[in-house]
Amino acid sequence: xxxxxxxxxxxxxxxxxxxxxxxxxxxxxxxxxxxxxxxxxxxxxxxxxxxxxxxxxxxxxxxxx
Amino acid sequence: xxxxxxxxxxxxxxxxxxxxxxxxxxxxxxxxxxxxxxxxxxxxxxxxxxxxxxxxxxxxxxxxxxxxxxxxxxxxxxxxxxxxxxxxxxxxxxxxxxxxxxxxxxxxxxxxxxxxxxxxxxxxxxxxxxxxxxxxxxxxxxxxxxxxxxxxxxxxxxxxxxxxxxxxxxxxxxxxxxxxxxxxx
Lengths: 65, 185
Description:
The structure holds two protein chains of two kinds. By secondary structure, chain A is an all-alpha fold.
């Protein structure tokens, strides 16, 4: 129990640092080639409902590891 | 979902998607490539997305599937994905006993990607265990285990640094006391 209690401040500090790292990454400007990609999306054909591209799950998919 | 609506929503998730990619890769160029692949796969498979459901979670799933698929293709990595506490403790002490952000980043990068992923989903994005399990395609117990191992590894690094800082402080105190002719017990 004492160990669990003493662990909690570290968990809080870890989560705070995780958030700071993530926020820093999320607030960074996107590189130009990713912005260009968004601009080009309209020219890329969308699937017609058949086929299955690798890594694109149906929304309910659960991948077994 | 109409394409313009989908594009707008995709665009709105781009920065968080890239931050999630960074949490997996810890490398700018690799994260950019991963986001690009994810966006292309999502766009060309929009028919698989159920309108009204969580697009961010769908994108995260595509991104992580792409990441792990690429990693498998890139042969075995040296990285220990079983969660052993890292062998390398090479972080400089922070002045206030905390790991500075750059140092924390380095400590984080030493964890297996599977642990960073769960730490990010739950510790940062406030996913429930069940939601994280769905995104990661694993059982809830696996999510909890990865979370605990990741936190434990980071906590050990941070405590070691704090202890190191205390030792440095003690040594400095002893030196000052000794220099002033006093005795340090």
